[in-house]
Design goal:
Elements lengths: L2 E2 H5 L5 E12 L3 E4 L19 H11 L7 E6 L2 E6 L1 H9 L4 E11 L4 H16 L10 H16 L3 H22 L2 H4 L5 H19 L4 H15 L3 H14 L1
Parallel strand pairs: 1-3, 3-5, 4-6
Antiparallel strand pairs: 2-6, 4-5
């Protein structure tokens, strides 16, 4: 079933709107309707016994390579809700068209959900670093920015240079170690980015206690032991690490 803008966000009155222009968007990211979700099936086709003549004409026009007017959509996070052009979207989906021209209106919720806030942090992080890392913790992106800044300072390079080198030389190798130790299976409700932050924060605590840098390999093994072996310790461990993330 397609999403309803009204059910998800309360309707247009609860959104701040800004026109972004006309450009191609991914058809697969069109997930909802502004005003007619109850009339449509999950492929955006109107619930009628047979396809309408209008739909068939639009489908044939696409098959013939004709240029159709752009649809009109609201963009929330990286998803699109159709305001005008449901037939064109339905035909595009049926024909497995990858892109469709659209007049895009950025819609920012006035009462954002938690996932909206995280998405905005993710977009800001991507704009600043050029990196796209998925997190579920609201304060996690600030933690990653701090790590990149510290890496830049330690290596005497710019923030832009550090973003790429830190990602290649620190983030990716640590993520591989996390996967080898199956920590992503032990804590399946967190992303690999979340786990990287938990491990790096645990490493900071353990290094402070030891008076030296214990390294990521030892931090991962220590984290795994503590998380798996101590009854009731898991929630306290993650809460402690989250306090460090947000401080």
């Amino acid at each position: 079933m397609i999403k309803s803008l009204q059910e998800e966000y309360g309707g247009i009155g609860y959104l701040r709107l800004r026109e972004l222009g006309i450009f191609p968007i991914e058809v697969d990211k069109i997930v909802g309707s502004v005003g007619r979700p109850q009339d449509l099936d999950d492929r955006f086709r109107f619930k009628t016994p047979r396809p309408t003549q209008r739909y068939l004409a639009i489908k044939k026009a696409i098959e013939d390579g004709k240029v159709l007017p752009p649809i009109e959509v609201y963009k929330i996070r990286d998803e699109y809700y159709v305001l005008d052009g449901h037939h064109r979207v339905a035909a595009a989906k049926e024909l497995h068209q990858r892109y469709i021209d659209a007049k895009v209106i950025q819609a920012t919720p006035l009462n954002p959900k938690r996932e909206d806030i995280i998405f905005n942090y993710r977009e800001s992080f991507r704009e600043r670093t050029g990196l796209d890392i998925e997190l579920t913790e609201i304060g996690g992106y600030e933690n990653l920015i701090s790590q990149v800044s510290e890496y830049a300072k330690e290596n005497g390079i710019t923030f832009e240079e550090a973003s790429k080198k830190w990602y290649k030389e620190v983030f990716l190798p640590v993520c591989e170690m996390i996967k080898r130790e199956n920590i992503d299976r032990i804590i399946p409700d967190k992303t690999i980015g979340d786990l990287f932050i938990y491990i790096s924060t645990h490493k900071w605590y353990r290094s402070e206690e030891a008076g030296k840098d214990i390294g990521f390999k030892e931090a991962i093994k220590s984290f795994k032991r503590l998380y798996r072996n101590q009854e009731g310790f898991r929630g306290r461990l993650l809460k402690r690490l989250q306090i460090r993330i947000f401080s």
